[in-house]
Amino acid sequence: MAITEIRIYTVELAAKQLYNMSNSAVATPTSTIIEVIDSSGHVGYGEVCLASPQYQPAHNDGIRTSLEILAPAVLGCDPECETVLNATMNQAMDGHTEGKAALDIACWDLSGKIANRSVVDLLGGALQQDVATYHVVGIGTPDYAAAETERLQNEGITRIQLKAGGRPIHQDIACIHAVSKVIQPGSDLAIDTNRGWTTAEAIHVSNACANINLSLEQPCATENELIQLKKQVNHPVIVDENSTDITAVARMISYGLADGFGLKLTRLGGLTNMRAVRDLCMATRTPMSTDDAWGGDIIAAACVALGATLDPHFSRGAWIAHPYHQTHYDEENGPRLKNGFVTLPQGGPGLGLVFEPGQFGEPVAVYH
Ligand code: 0XW
Ligand code: MG
User: I need a labelling partner for 241 at 20 to 30 A (CA). Which of 21, 91, 199, 217 fits?
Assistant: First the structure.
């Protein structure tokens, strides 16, 4: 088979629930949806949507500009040859992993449809049928943080990610203590500052919460700060934004720095690259999540598909943005929170999603 046409669509995914991080609040990100058609008429879908311009060094408009180079470069590629596809994209353009990821994901979906198999099976098969997930509690007051944590736990969520940073740390400490009073035994609490604290602030917070069972997710901005911090705190350190590619992941594992990772499919370049990172993390017994920054059912299905292939012991969960924007692409099959897990789409081969012709409106760009 060969890729014969690529269509690009956009969908706005406005946050309908408070979602404040240390460096930004999520407003109305514009998602980029990619439709890849091959010579047999099969259609695969990919997606990428960044949460805010501050969250990572990329921008949603820039992704569509990168596709002006990447999409023409992969016309004629065999969608089932992911190694060749990624090599072709890397020869066409350095970096820009987000646009590459969306094309890569679309080809995994397409490959599943050609082979009449799920992406989960193409990735090696499910080790989790009910895929673990976690839920974010945005930056707010201690009462809000405690009440939201209780609400989520009542819905079966046992993995809470409390956002922090970007304000005086005594306010973060107050929220952490408020949550610690309501978190249930067996629940997992991560404090994610999205690079918001200095090393000194992170040490201060860790000491002020020394008797609270929590992990520090991306507490500081740079790898060197995390290396210094790791020597001085007892709480586990989870690396997110610094895990920019497999070499960074391997380096931080070799340093003994990472007690786990918060990984983003599109930051790492898609399912092909994430499969390699998954294998490295499982081989080194390093827990990881399978997330993305924002997005709809397509990127969620890709995150959940990869998440399903993780040994549950090393799964930090597959995060999906749906609860925060509540936009359906596939109302029946889209990944949804259920009893503390996230559902795997069952709509058919590939990512398991079903779309109506023309569902995403007129394409903003077509390459053929
Ligand atoms: C919670 N996430 C997966 C979604 C937000 O965009 C940020 C990210 C994180 O863990 O930092
Ligand atoms: Mg994070």
Answer: 91
